[in-house]
Amino acid sequence: MNDSMKIDLILASGIKTNRELHEKTVVVIDVLRASSTIITALANGCVDLLPVAEPGDAAFINRQIGACCLTGGERNGLKIPGFDLGNSPLEYSAEVVAEKRIILCTSNGTKALKEAQNAAEILIGAFLNAGRTSLYLKDKQEVVLFCAGRNGELGLDDLLCAGLIVENLLAQEVEVELTDAAQLGLISYRHLVGGKTSELAAILYQAEHTRYLASIGFAADITYCAQVDFLPYLISYKGGRVMMEDQRVAANN
């Protein structure tokens, strides 16, 4: 274990920042819903996900890959016209995604992945796998928690998840140095959630984006995405592919 870990936090994708991500481990967090959907798809047997920033990119890659591929994504929370799936993790069942490759295009999450691509290592984080992700991070020296946010602005759901990851690291007796932004995540988590993870779904309704998703018919997604450590898998993004880390190791052997 390192003597000290520096933890930084980016509040939203699309914000011009002077942060240098080279040689750092970045955790991209988009609780509602790209991160949660990615983790769910892989847990249900998806081969990999190929994140893209724009729908046109998804259509181009889909033509190249062919029959084993599905397109998934959203704009303003709703399925992109012509795509196979939206961005609800509940759509990504084993019956639908097992043995499939998925091209994913979302408003914020996949853009954050693209913005983080110069990092030494990129992980996907959400409440669903916060514990497993935190356990992996404990031996890292520099960590950046990259909250996808919403349209370039802070998202409370992502901030609380980042705070939980910091709290988990502190519980593992990792000595950490927090930037002001990382302090904000930790304080927000402690103030709003604390030990009340069983009430997390209700707490998330304090977020503007949560209420919006519920208003367009996705209340069940919020309950699902609020399950802490429900899918304890380590998910990474490398070489343009998002995969479960166990799958990536097996594929390279």
Task: Describe the fold and architecture.
The chain has 253 residues and is an alpha/beta fold. It has a domain at 5-35 and 108-248: ComB-like (putative 2-phosphosulfolactate phosphatase, Alpha-Beta Complex). Helices cover 38% and strands 21% of the residues. It has eleven helices and eleven strands. It has helices at residues 34-43, 55-65, 94-97, 109-115, 130-137, 156-171, 180-192, 200-204, 208-215, 219-225, 245-252; strands spanning 5-10, 25-29, 48-52, 69-75, 78-79, 101-105, 121-125, 142-147, 176-178, 235-238, 241-244. The chain has a seven-stranded mixed sheet, sandwiched between helices. Strand 4 and strand 5 form a beta hairpin. Helix 5 packs across helix 6 and helix 9 crosses helix 10 (219-225). It is globular and about 50 Å long.
Produce a short descriptive summary.
This protein is an alpha/beta fold. It contains 11 helices and 11 strands. Helix content is 38%, strand content 21%.
CATH level 3 topology of the domain at 5-35 and 108-248: putative 2-phosphosulfolactate phosphatase
Q: Would you identify the CATH H-level superfamily of the domain at 5-35 and 108-248? A: ComB-like
- What overall form do the CA principal axes indicate? globular
Distance between the termini: 27 Å
Mean pLDDT: 94
Helix fraction by DSSP (H/I, runs of at least 4): 25-40%
Q: Biggest sheet, open or closed, and with what strands and sense?
A: 7 strands, mixed
DSSP E strands, number:
11
